[in-house]
Amino acid sequence: LGASPGDMARLPAAWLNIAPYRELGRNAAEYLEEQFGTPALYDAPIGVQPTLRWLRQLVEMLNDVGARANGPVITMPPLTAFSLDGMSAPSGVPWFARTADMESFSSKNAFVFGDATHTVGMVKFLHDELGMEIAGAGTYLAHEADWVREQLAGYLPAAGSSQLAAGSNPSSNPLPTADCLLVTDRFQEVATRIADLQPNLVCGTQMERHSCRKLDIPCMVVAPPTHIENHLLGYRPMLGFDGADVIADEVYTTATLGLEKHLIDLFGDAGLEYEGDGGQEMGDGNTLVSEEPQAATAA
């Protein structure tokens, strides 16, 4: 962005600091607030509703500082201003979550594991905005475990109980117990928990992706450690309205849809060809041998 080390001397002049990740920049923001009185916005806008709350809080905090500096009052722009064409809704998730395909997700459950920020954000997004059930969650950051438990109070199933049903009110559920939130930095323990729960979708790190390949469970990488293949060339944010669309797309293309499974059960593979097969497999499991004549070989 064109900044240089010399610009660090201007940090106290900021009206507001933004530190959405607990794992990165939070200590610096807290130091600047303590030393220079610069307020900071610490929430992570993961999902549509959290982004709306984040924007309203940003406007409120800027106006508080601006009032002391005799600055102009900032107002929240219309939501269409956040869309690409300036006329549409800023995110397609609210509509997308009500389509026939996404309604089938209400009977599916997910397990989420990663750092503190992404674990909390993904659990709330999957449950609150996509209507999925939560089979369990965990983090490898032991020093953030208490914060994660506090944030996911009511989202996680109590120890020994079934997952939280989609559409239920998290505030009416008891606080999760220590056994409910998996806190470990050993990927083998995470793999064991996934194998026990057998969720329909796992959101985790690259290590969970490896484990889920062996378990034949769909997995999307949402937290570090990651692999180069998780960082595509295109613009794929995780925060804000665009980030909500990206996450929803990833969930949709990673998990197996109920209708998709039903069609596979009903029609088999629909005569699709697979590499290494001598022909096409029919819906009854029999092999359809290709009727094309073999190419003549030269004498």
Automatic annotation (TrEMBL):
Signal peptide: none annotated. One of its GO terms (molecular function) is oxidoreductase activity. InterPro entries: ChlB/BchB/BchZ, Nase/OxRdtase_comp1. Residues 2-254 form the Nitrogenase/oxidoreductase component domain. It holds the Pfam family Oxidored_nitro. Residues 276-299 are annotated as: Disordered. It comes from the Bacteria. This is Nitrogenase/oxidoreductase component 1 domain-containing protein. It comes from Kouleothrix aurantiaca. The lineage of its organism: Bacteria, Bacillati, Chloroflexota, Chloroflexia, Chloroflexales.
